[in-house]
């Protein structure tokens, strides 16, 4: 159901998520709390075009004036795609003499010990553009070798000659004393006033030079592109006659302003998926579920994140642009705050093919939005997961995107038959069932490993499914994992865009301070946190948060002396005033034992990193989607045959219009519940209930 918006003069908040296949849009009326949704094919050559084409369509459909847009919130795959495709700007590196090969040597680990012909990731900056400067400070920040400014001027001359547009400056131990990096920046800008500069002491002021150097280089590599990208969005918004602010969701699920995003674009590398996790956690809480597996499956990838006590797991390391998608160590090491999401499988557009052993494989290649799945009838000839879902009865060819996009079951069947079924000597239905089941098993295997590594049992969690393909595959995944409940939020196919509406403004900062617990310099410790808190308040102020609205979380990363990894422990601000190390020791021992099952005796403890997370409460406490018009008599649309793996055949299945289901309604499985952006599939031996927030809660028996 559409709403009458022609007479509205309220201000709108827009959420936009650009995915590999579709661009999702949400518009929140800040007066009524109503959310409008839109979904349009992504335009890979210019992602912004799909966003504003989609907004124009929504404005026409609902009779809106886009000059009433007050806030524009965005999530983008631009950074991730730029890293993967190596399409960043020409970049140089200035570093301490003797350290220019750090980003090439890496950590000296082989990501595949059995591959004799393994190729390593090529650095983003070639060796001749990695220039050295004679300078050195020690681990306490004292100067060992004076700074030689002529080395920077010589590097600038080479960079000008080579057409370098962006430069990373990363000196050893600059996290403790950044003065030499700042000097290098000043001299470089004297020689190259237009060049973009990234300092490691700003981007990642933490110990361990590989991660700090590579994060700074990656930031420099994409920085000019994001500035241009955001400026284009601001111009497009201004064309509507609005002075709407542009905010961006970061990889940790927090909201930041455009200026901060442009300064540290590497922190946006997982912005879209992070918003999906925020949406899953939000709807999970609405459904009374605080222990959830957030499962997001779109057109290109599927990802999951554990959410405990309503809060997603966050970490401070990430690996980008892997050469081999599921091989840890094959990508670029980054030190950024990020949701702990794992890529567990393919998306709806992932291509099914036979390998050299004539075995059926899915992905990692994707049909994307161009040419797309065969069933889109846009020229695609390879069979993909969506084609299989059409053939198995999960998707209605006449109701894809609410009927705005017609699918061809005939083309889907032809692609699967030609590329899979006929070569294997099986029927097209058997091939489609195999594609669907292999995708599910691949995701379940990856999820089991990740959950086991976290020392917990998947059966303690409920599954919250988002993304266009998530609810289609959620039942199969929950069945294989042994879960008892699935929650499918309303408008689940645009969940990432909806998550942007509820994403909390957030600033997350870190500093390295290596010290044994019994030798802490409390004055220095307090000064570090005071500086971080000041910066956090300034950052939150840019998105309209007053300092009295801030909530702050303090964390120390600790280890036993001599270990090479840390455990993060939270502590209250009062500890800094009381100077009570027992608070840290107790918290660390508890966390260590929970993780490893025992605690070594008689070993001293060390602090390595300090972190501060400042945030404001969620901007929106409830989302009311506009299309819902409950009417129990009209909820049942009809019946069709749907394939279920546990019975290895089709079953006559009720098909419901999700927009007509009345809160409190309970229906038995098997059932298919359709909405514009996605389709929910529930198998036999399930019960589906509509709760008061319009979530579909599916209990597996």
Automatic annotation (TrEMBL):
SUPFAM superfamilies: Actin-like ATPase domain. Residues 525-693 form the Acetophenone carboxylase-like C-terminal domain. Residues 14-191 form the Hydantoinase/oxoprolinase N-terminal domain. One of its GO terms (molecular function) is 5-oxoprolinase (ATP-hydrolyzing) activity. Residues 212-505 form the Hydantoinase A/oxoprolinase domain. It comes from the Bacteria. GO terms for biological process: glutathione metabolic process. Pfam families: Hydant_A_C (PF19278), Hydant_A_N (PF05378), Hydantoinase_A (PF01968). GO terms for cellular component: cytosol. This is N-methylhydantoinase A.
């Amino acid at each position: 159901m559409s709403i009458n918006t022609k007479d509205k003069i309220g201000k709108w908040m827009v959420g936009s998520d650009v995915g590999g296949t579709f661009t999702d849009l949400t518009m929140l009326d800040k007066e009524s709390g109503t959310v409008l949704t839109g979904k349009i094919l992504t335009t890979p050559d210019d992602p912004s075009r799909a966003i504003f084409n989609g907004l124009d369509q929504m404005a026409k459909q609902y009779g809106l004036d886009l000059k009433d847009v007050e806030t524009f919130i965005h999530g983008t795959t631009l950074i991730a795609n730029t890293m993967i495709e190596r399409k960043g700007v020409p970049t140089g590196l200035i570093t301490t003499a003797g350290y220019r090969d750090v980003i090439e040597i890496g950590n000296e680990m082989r990501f595949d010990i059995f591959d004799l012909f393994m190729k390593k990731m090529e650095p983003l900056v070639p060796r001749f553009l990695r220039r050295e400067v004679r300078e050195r400070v020690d681990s306490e920040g004292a100067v060992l070798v004076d700074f030689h400014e002529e080395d920077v001027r010589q590097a600038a001359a080479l960079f000008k000659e080579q057409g370098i547009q962006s430069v990373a400056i990363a000196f050893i131990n600059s996290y403790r004393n950044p003065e030499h990096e700042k000097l290098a920046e000043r001299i470089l800008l004297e020689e190259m006033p237009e060049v973009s500069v990234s300092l490691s002491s700003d981007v990642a002021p933490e110990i361990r030079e590989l991660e700090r150097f590579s994060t700074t280089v990656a930031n420099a590599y994409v920085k000019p592109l994001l500035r241009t990208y955001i400026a284009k969005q601001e111009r497009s918004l201004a064309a509507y006659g609005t002075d709407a602010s542009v905010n961006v969701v970061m990889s940790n699920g927090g909201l930041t302003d455009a200026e901060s995003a442009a300064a540290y674009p590497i922190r946006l590398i997982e912005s879209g998926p992070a918003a999906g996790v925020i949406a899953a956690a939000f709807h999970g809480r609405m459904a009374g579920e605080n222990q959830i597996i957030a499962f997001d499956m779109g057109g290109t990838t599927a990802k999951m994140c554990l959410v405990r006590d309503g809060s997603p797991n966050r970490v401070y390391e990430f690996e980008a642009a892997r050469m081999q998608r599921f091989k840890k160590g094959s990508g670029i090491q980054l030190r950024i705050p990020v949701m702990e999401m794992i890529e567990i499988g393919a998306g709806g557009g992932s291509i099914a093919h036979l390998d050299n052993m004539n075995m059926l494989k899915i992905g990692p290649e994707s049909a994307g939005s161009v040419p797309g799945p065969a069933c889109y009838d846009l020229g695609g000839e390879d069979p993909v997961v969506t084609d299989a879902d059409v053939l198995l009865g999960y998707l209605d060819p006449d109701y894809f995107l609410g009927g705005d996009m017609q699918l061809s079951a005939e083309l889907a069947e032809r692609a699967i038959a030609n590329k899979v079924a006929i070569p294997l000597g099986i029927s097209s239905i058997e091939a489609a069932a195999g594609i669907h089941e292999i995708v599910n098993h691949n995701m379940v295997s990856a999820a089991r490993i990740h959950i086991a590594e976290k020392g917990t049992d998947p059966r303690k969690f409920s599954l919250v499914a988002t993304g266009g393909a998530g609810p289609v595959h959620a039942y199969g995944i929950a069945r294989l994992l042994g879960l008892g409940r699935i929650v499918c939020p309303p408008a689940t196919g645009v969940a990432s865009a909806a998550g942007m509406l509820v994403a909390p403004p957030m600033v997350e900062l870190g500093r390295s301070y290596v010290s044994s617990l019994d030798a802490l310099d409390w004055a220095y410790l307090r000064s570090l946190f005071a500086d971080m808190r000041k910066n956090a308040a300034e950052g939150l102020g840019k998105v309209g948060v007053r300092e009295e609205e801030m909530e702050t979380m303090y964390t120390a990363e600790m280890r036993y002396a001599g270990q090479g990894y840390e455990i993060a422990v939270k502590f209250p601000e009062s500890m800094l005033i009381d100077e009570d190390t027992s608070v840290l020791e107790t918290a660390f021992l508890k966390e260590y034992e929970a993780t490893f099952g025992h605690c070594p005796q008689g070993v001293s403890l060390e602090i390595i990193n300090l972190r501060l997370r400042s945030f404001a409460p969620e901007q929106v406490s409830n989302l009311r989607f506009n299309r819902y018009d409950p009417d129990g008599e009209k909820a049942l649309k009809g019946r069709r045959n749907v394939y279920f793996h546990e019975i290895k055949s089709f079953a006559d299945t009720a098909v419901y219009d999700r927009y007509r289901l009345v809160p409190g309604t309970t229906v038995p499985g098997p059932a298919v519940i359709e909405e514009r952006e996605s389709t929910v599939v529930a198998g036999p031996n399930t019960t589906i209930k509509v709760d008061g927030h319009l979530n579909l809660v599916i209990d597996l028996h």
